Amino acid sequence: MWSDALDMMAKAERLHRQLFEPRPSHGSAPSWEPPVDVLETAEEVLILAALPGVSPDSIEATIHDGVLVISGRRLLPPELRIAIIHRLELPQGAFRRDIALPPGSYRSVDHDFVNGCLVIRLGKN
Fold first, then answer.
1. How far is it, in rounded angstroms, from Cα 79 to Cα 125?
2. pTM, entire model
3. What phi, psi does 20 have (nearest 5°)?
4. For 93-105, how does the pLDDT look when each residue is reduced to its tens digit (9 = 90+)?
5. H/E element holding 21?
6. Which residues of the chain fall below pLDDT 70?
7. How far does Cα 37 stand from its chain's mean position?
8. Domains of the chain
């Protein structure tokens, strides 16, 4: 049982590394995708995008043909210029995430930044 738990933890660690592994960037092309949760109630669709360390001013969110597009850039902290790096796991650079929205029309769009997450609320008609 203990070995099964250790095996599951190792698999989770590998999956986490794959999820946040930077992809080759070509100029300003996005190099990573933030993880998201998409929840739906009778009144709204709620999207949470994990963006720790990203300035809310550097995020753009638009809807095109039923797809929510979240993009922006996570900049390296200025301390990196003088620091010795022991571990650097948070993704850096340009990001983009395309999220297919549930079918329907939306009457309102609200957004906020809470605990390192971009929270988008789409009020349903």
1. 47
2. 0.73
3. -100, 10
4. 999 999 999 998 8
5. none
6. 14-28
7. 9
8. 2-124 (2.60.40.790)
